[in-house]
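seq as requested:
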Amino acid sequence: MTRKQKRSVVIFGALGVLALAVALVLSALGEQVTFFRTPSDLMAGSEDNSGRMRLGGLVVVGSVDNSAGNQVKFSVEDVNHEIEVVYAGILPDLFREGQGIIAEGTLSADGIFLADTVLAKHDETYMPREVAESLKEQGFWKGDEQQ
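struct tokens:
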């Protein structure tokens, strides 16, 4: 092989290894993606609601039921719709009715969101960005514009 051919083989080999590494990274990231949905998005059913996702909205006042041991049931709403959420575990200390939360989990076939993680706001002015944007689009939440 000539010097030019050897250089070409090394360059194409390096590009092949780089392409393989990029493909593996993108494949791994694709499996870890959790899409954000609001109750209205889930009720519309226009998107694929299978797999892991994040549900955001406001906890409906009077909907929290923790009478079943460590399993808690509550509803999350935006302006138009509400979804029942079932969470097995201890809720964050700052969780309360009427506040914005994000729950991570899956949607069951009967329309109940099965959460394995619940995130609550950490101070008086915080609202998860996705929840705030969704509520602002619907004209429901008028919080501080600075986040």
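The mean pLDDT is 82.
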